[in-house]
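Summary for the steering committee. The consortium agreed at its last meeting that each partner would contribute one worked example illustrating the joint modelling workflow. Our contribution is presented below. We chose a case with several input lines so that the handling of multiple components could be demonstrated. No manual editing was applied between input and output; the record is shown as generated.
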Amino acid sequence: MAAITQAERGGSQQVSGRRRRRPHLRSHAQNIGHPGIIWALPATIYFAIFALLPLVVVVWLSFTEWGGIGSPHWVGGANWKALATDSIMRQSIWLMLLLTALSVVTQTLVALPLGVWAAGFQRNRAVLTALYFIPLLMSSAAIAIVWRALLDPNFGIPSQMHWLFGSGNLFGHAGDAIGVLTFVAMWQWTPLYTLIYQGGARAIPAQIYEAASIDGAGRVRQFFTITLPQLRNTIVTSLILMVIGGMTAFESILILTQGEPGYSTTTTAYYMYSKAFLRFQYGQGSVIAVVLVVVATAIGLLITKWTGYDKMASAQEGI
Amino acid sequence: MRRRPNWIAGIFSVIWLVIVLTPVYVMLSASVQSQSKYSSQGPLSIPKQLIFSNFTAVVRSGFLRYFLNSVIVTAAVVLIVALLVPPLSFAIVRSRSVLSRPIFRLFLLGLAVPSQAVIVPLFYMMTKVNLYDTLEAVIFPTAAFVFPMATLIMSGSMRDITSDMYEAMSLDGASSWRTFTQMVLPLSRGGVATITVFAALQAWNNFLFPLVLTQSAGDRVYTLGLFNFETSYGINVPEISAAVIISIIPILLVYLFARRALVQGLMGVGGK
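What follows is the complete predicted structure of the assembly.
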């Protein structure tokens, strides 16, 4: 993600470079050291088979009915019609957007100040930063499993702290369950964004702060007038990563809530999984998968336009 | 220019530290307690005597087999990515073919595709070619989904090589192959390191593809092993904790010995 714009630009420069050379006589010597397109073929063919072909197959499957055994049979637009009136589907998209928004807000609110603070070179900050790193050593599945154990209604921490958690069951109500998912996502991903913001804050020239101090700007004022504006690109980059991460969250839902209570934590991705692999309605699952690709791509494009990410001189600026 | 200590930030950072470390503490202390002690004394208690039977129980339950499967998947994915992506990036950056730009755009588009979207068709395809419930079924698509990001990182790294250097190589009459092996690869080794770590992390932590593309215990990777522990033993937190701790060891080693590469691989950036 990070290098898109830069890479795009590099690409267009190359095109113009080629055009410039065209009038010259194209001797053999000019092509020496320039690889033929054959260098790209193995990877492209591989990618086409295992990443692009499935996207074609899923569109086809969305017009079929298949139970996992035998061959899918064509049912035309029946799955699509069923989905159009499916209220759970609509709710799942809103829920996906809600969880994504909550993730972005909570993770930014913690990671941004923490990263700026960790950018200082004091010894104690270095030690703390190393400890903050711990969640990044664990896989999403491991994190969800550990939190599931920790928040267990009978043997977990909430069951011992009724003054804070009431009944101790955080999986029984929609609001609580959404809160758990948001919190676990925050625990898992904040360290990564803290690192990103730490890098961003360290790249701000110290002279700007010195000049501001001489002018009498206090710490809070400096944060809002120097640090935040200087971190703009970092904020945009991490925002995009957070949105992608939020929309594709899956392990935590499968392990922590199974989409429950009711359908209140069933996001689009989980709904697709449960349709296909729990209820063996692969055709209907495929319809949801197609919608997921369209929604994810549309939101991705919208954000890159809206934040001006596509116009950033170099995406590496953001990190 | 000295400033007073930043107390608000200090307090805030300690609160966050407690949040980060609480599960880590529970995991460590639960892993050396018996199930009955853990249930009766609660997750936050301090273990009075240390037992290691949880670890031996985890090993006996076949977890090492799952662990080994994950190692195989990771090694294979890294191999595929490291073999195919650098030549691809070389062609994208240096080829004069009209196809190099469309190919690059294709991989950029791939960035937007969520892996969840392809699990149904992959399941169908793998069943059709009789690869369902094999490690290959997990390896192939996992590697493919690493390609877009790896291509971006690798191309960015190779663009940093100035055209003067390419010209010097071609003045020497070097072929593409020689340019690639003797100049491009050595100069972009930071990028190669980053895509290697990135690919390894994706493969090691992968859960979704193994979940839908494998079934039998012999082909189970460790993430599924953990999931299986959770669903079949329900509340045996000590054993689950021991299993999770074992699963962290490889990444912890990378963290201790190659922190920079790990961080760049996690962020999917850098390579300079």
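Chain B touches chain A through 109 residues (CB under 8 Å). DSSP finds 13 helices and no strands in chain B.
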